[in-house]
Amino acid sequence: MQSRRALITGASSGIGRAFARQLALQGYSITGVARREDKLRELMGELPGDQHRYLVADLSHDAGVQSVTEALAQDRFHLLVNNAGYSVFEPFSQSELALQQNILNVNCAAVVTLAHAFLQQAQRGDALINLASVVSYLPTPAQPMYSASKAFVASLSECLWVEQKERGVYVMGLCPGVTATEFISTASGGAADGSNLPSAVTQSAEEVVAEALVALNKRRKAIVVTGRANRAMLWMPRLLSRHRLISILAVAGDPKRML
Ligand SMILES: NC(=O)c1ccc[n+]([C@@H]2O[C@H](COP(=O)([O-])OP(=O)(O)OC[C@H]3O[C@@H](n4cnc5c(N)ncnc54)[C@H](OP(=O)(O)O)[C@@H]3O)[C@@H](O)[C@H]2O)c1
User: Fold this and answer.
1) Which atom of ligand 1 is nearest to the CA of 105?
2) How many domains does the chain have?
3) Is the CB of 84 under 6 A from ligand 1?
4) Ligand 1 pocket, mutate which of 131, 140, 186, 195 (most atoms under 8 A from CB)
5) With contact defined as beta carbons under 8 Å apart, do 226 and 175 qualify?
6) pLDDT of residue 2
7) CA of 150 to the centre of ligand 1 (A)
8) Strand-pair category, 170-175 with 223-225
């Protein structure tokens, strides 16, 4: 039997790496995408099964995105995990515009282009997972571009969930909350490593992916929020005024609490 094939962006660390491991255990052949070749090569060596590959690509540039769309067109993929993404803890108006735009390129533009390329070839039973976040619904003033980018991904995913349902292709917007990965280190420019994250609300990448794969099996929900604490927090937008919500999140989401 031909194995199922999954393409995972941002497979070199964190949630993407955990997706690669757990999907390989389920028999998928993995194509991992990221910029750090050493990390991708290391991952390929660890994965059970065969026919795994990697593709070095920078998704903030057109050339990098194009190399991945070409890979999606050349092979038959059953699953795309649009996972690559990042944030920076820098005040919007005081940081370089290019830095802020780069977040949009990776978190939104690349997601759109790759989702489109994947859905061109998708068949009944296939699936697309886009990494959104609880900040899609809980905008964090300390990370304006990141929050806005993830609201975009969640909205896009919900709409595509409806559009693709007819043809039997499942689309999921995956919303983890605080997850112990390299995310904090990247966002803080190395000033923090995430060791101060509140343990009561922090999940491991493996836990996030395990919940995502259960939901993938069920193919029911457009938006999958991982972790009980995160699901509880998503009552906030229903109970509070928008004004009150954003004021609370300005304090709760202050990066100084994680540094
Ligand atoms: N950690 C959290 O608390 C959290 C919560 C909710 C949602 N998420 C989302 O989950 C996804 C994965 O994040 P993570 O937590 O696993 O963080 P991570 O450990 O920092 O992983 C981010 C991945 O994205 C890749 N990446 C970043 N910029 C890229 C670029 N320009 N081109 C290609 N690949 C790029 C990185 O690979 P290279 O550096 O090798 O390129 C890395 O593999 C992101 O979309 C993030 O927004 C994270």
Assistant:
1) 31
2) 1
3) yes
4) 131
5) yes
6) 62
7) 12
8) parallel
Give the number of other Cβ atoms within 10 Å of residue 219's Cβ: 15
pTM over 0.85: yes
Distance CA 94, CA 193 (A): 23
Q: Is 77 helix (H, G, I), strand (E, B) or coil?
A: coil
- Any atom of ligand 1 within 6 Å of the Cβ of 106: yes
pLDDT in tens, 51-96: 999 999 999 999 999 999 999 999 999 999 999 999 999 999 999 9
Q: How far apart are CA 18 and CA 12, in angstroms?
A: 9
CA of 84 to the centre of ligand 1 (A): 4
Whether 197 is in the pocket of ligand 1, judged by its Cβ within 6 Å, is no
Residue spans of beta strands (DSSP E) within 83-178? 127-131, 170-175
pLDDT of 85:
98
Q: At what angle do helices 62-74 and 110-121 cross, to 10 degrees?
A: 10
The CB-side HSE value for 158 (13 A sphere, CA atoms) comes to: 12
What band does 244 get if pLDDT is binned at 50, 70 and 90?
A: very high
Ligand 1 close to Cβ of residue 60 (< 6 A): yes
Nearest to 80 by CA among 35, 133, 33, 22: 33
Active site residue 28: no
Residue position matching structure tokens 């540039």: 61
CA–CA separation, 9 vs 68, rounded Å? 9
Q: How far apart are CA 231 and CA 145, in angstroms?
A: 23
Residue 158 belongs to what domain range?
A: 5-257
Per-residue pLDDT, averaged over 250-259, amounts to 81
Contact (Cβ atoms closer than 8 angstroms) between residue 149 and residue 48: no
CATH number for the domain spanning 59: value is: 3.40.50.720
